[in-house]
Design goal:
About 25% of the residues lie in helices and about 25% in strands. The protein is of the alpha/beta class. The longest helix is centred in the middle third of the chain and has 22 residues.
Length: about 425
C-alpha cells in the first residue's frame, strides 16, 4: 500500500502524517530510524557491535530496518523473540536476555535456533545448561553483572542495589567457578547495563567507565576466555515531548582510550565490545495522532477529552517505568506547530486545560493544567517522540478499547498500516 503524505509542521518536531488517517494512530518513520542509528553509531567506539532492544518498539518493520543497518536483536520474552524472527532476524543474531526465564521459554528459543543468552544467577546458568542438554546442543551466555554503586544522571538505575538484574560482582570474583558454566552452556562474556535514559554525556561516560572497570577485573578473576563484553546502553531520548536526541560527541574517544587500557585487544575484537539501545534508535521516529472528542467546562476548568489516553501512551508512568507524563501536543491540521497559536471556530477560550483520555477512570489523565488555545471536537493533534515505549508500553487491554493503528512510513510514503488485535482461544493446559 502506498499513499502520498503531506507535512503539517517543521520536520524537526512533527513528522509528515497521512491525510485522512483514522485515529488514534502511531506513525513510525523509518527514515528517522536510520538517522538515529547513524547518529548513535557516530558516538560509539569502533569496532563495536550494537544490539537493538525490542522492548522499546517491537514493530517488525522497525526491527527489520535496524537489522538491515547492522543491529543484532536483544529480546527478553517469547513475544519479542517471535517479533524478531517475524522481522527476518536470523536466530544466530538474537540475544535472549531477562532476569527470569521459564523452562518453556528456553525450550522455545532453543527450538527456534537461538544459541546466545544472558543469565543473571547461578540458577540461571544451571537452568540453561539443563535446557541445552535436553535439546542436545551447546550454547553460550553472557553473565550479567550487578556491581556496587550507581550511575548519576540516570533516568532509571538498573543495578547497584538489590536487584533481579545480574549476579553480584563481589560473588563472581569470590567464587568464579560457579559462573563459568557446565557441559552444554558455557560463558562467552559479560553483560553490564548499569542505568538507562542518561542525557548528559559525562554521566553516560561515567556509567560506561564503571562498566569497563568491572569487566576488566572480572575477566581476570574468572580466568576463562571471554569473547564479548556487552557494556549495555543508557542513551537518553525525549519522551512524548518536543525535542531532538541528545549528542555525545566526545564519548567514542573517551571510551576508546579506556578500552585500550582495560581490555587490550578490543580493536581486534578480542574481546568484542557491544552496546545496546532501544529508545535512542526509535523514540524520534514515532508520533501518536489523536483527535479531540469533547471540550467542556468542569468546576471552572476546561477539560479536553481525546480518543487516546493511558491505554495508548504513558501507562507505564504509573509503574514508575517512565516519569509522569506531561506530553506536548502538536497541531497537525494548521500552520502553527505548538498548541499556543489559537484556532478558529473552536470551543471555548484559550487557557489551561485538563487533558484526558477516553477511559472510564479518573486515572486516564495526561495533564491537569496544560496551556491550550481554543480547540474543538474533531481537531487533530499529535504527540511527538513516541516511537519508543509508546503503544507497547501502554495499558492497551484496559477497558477494551481498540488498539491504535500502527502506520509505517518512509520518505513520504505509507508502507504498512495495521492494528494489533487480541483473541481469546481455548487452552489445553
Amino acid at each position: 500500500m502506498s499513499e502520498t503524505l503531506h507535512s503539517a509542521a517543521p520536520a524537526a518536531q512533527s513528522p509528515v502524517v497521512p491525510q485522512g488517517i483514522s485515529t488514534p494512530a502511531y506513525i513510525y518513520d523509518l527514515a528517522r530510524v536510520r538517522s538515529a542509528y547513524e547518529r548513535l553509531r557516530s558516538y560509539l567506539p569502533e569496532p563495536s557491535e550494537l544490539y537493538y532492544s525490542l522492548k522499546a518498539n517491537p514493530h517488525p518493520d522497525v526491527v527489520a530496518a535496524l537489522y538491515a543497518l547492522g543491529c543484532r536483536a536483544e529480546v527478553s520474552s517469547p513475544g519479542e523473540l517471535e517479533a524478531a524472527l517475524a522481522a527476518g532476524v536470523p536466530s544466530r543474531d538474537i540475544l535472549y536476555t531477562g532476569p527470569g526465564k521459564r523452562d518453556e521459554d528456553l525450550d522455545g528459543a532453543l527450538t527456534a535456533g537461538v544459541r546466545d543468552f544472558a543469565v543473571d544467577s547461578t540458577w540461571g546458568i544451571d537452568q540453561l545448561d539443563r535446557a541445552a542438554a535436553r535439546h542436545e546442543v551447546t550454547v553460550t551466555y553472557l553473565l550479567r553483572v550487578n556491581p556496587g554503586g550507581g550511575s548519576r544522571g540516570a533516568g532509571l538505575r538498573m543495578t547497584g542495589d538489590p536487584s533481579a538484574f545480574g549476579a553480584d560482582a563481589e560473588d563472581i570474583a569470590t567464587h568464579p567457578g560457579r559462573y563459568t558454566g557446565g557441559e552444554h552452556a558455557r560463558i562467552d562474556g559479560l553483560h553490564l547495563y548499569l542505568a538507562t535514559n542518561i542525557t548528559d554525556e559525562d554521566a553516560l561516560g561515567d556509567s560506561f567507565s564503571e562498566a569497563i572497570a568491572v569487566a576488566s577485573a572480572l575477566r581476570e578473576a574468572l580466568g576463562v576466555p571471554l569473547r564479548t563484553i556487552d557494556l549495555g546502553g543508557g542513551f537518553g531520548a525525549p519522551y512524548a515531548r518536543a525535542g531532538d536526541l541528545p549528542g555525545y560527541p566526545g564519548l567514542a574517544g573517551r571510551l576508546a582510550g579506556e578500552l585500550d587500557e582495560a581490555l587490550p585487544g578490543w580493536r581486534q575484537n578480542a574481546p568484542t565490545v557491544a552496546f545496546e539501545s532501544g529508545r535512542y534508535l526509535t523514540a524520534t521516529c514515532g508520533q501518536l495522532l489523536t483527535r479531540i472528542l469533547d471540550v467542556k467546562d468542569s468546576h471552572g476548568r476546561r477539560v479536553v477529552v481525546l480518543d487516546a489516553g493511558i491505554n495508548h501512551l504513558g501507562g507505564m508512568a504509573g509503574l514508575r517505568r517512565v516519569p509522569p507524563l506531561h506530553p506536548d501536543v502538536v497541531r497537525v491540521d494548521s500552520e502553527p506547530t505548538q498548541l499556543t497559536q489559537g484556532a478558529e471556530d473552536a470551543s471555548g477560550p484559550p487557557g489551561p486545560a485538563m487533558i484526558c483520555g477516553p477511559l472510564c477512570t479518573p486515572l486516564d489523565t495526561w495533564a491537569r493544567s496544560h496551556p491550550l488555545p481554543a480547540v474543538a471536537p474533531g481537531d487533530l493533534l499529535s504527540v511527538p517522540n513516541t516511537g519508543a515505549y509508546g503503544l507497547h508500553a501502554s495499558l492497551v487491554l484496559f477497558l477494551g478499547h481498540p488498539a491504535p493503528l500502527e502506520v509505517v512510513t518512509d520518505t513520504g510514503r505509507v508502507l504498512r498500516s495495521d492494528r494489533l488485535t487480541f483473541v481469546r482461544r481455548p487452552c489445553a493446559d
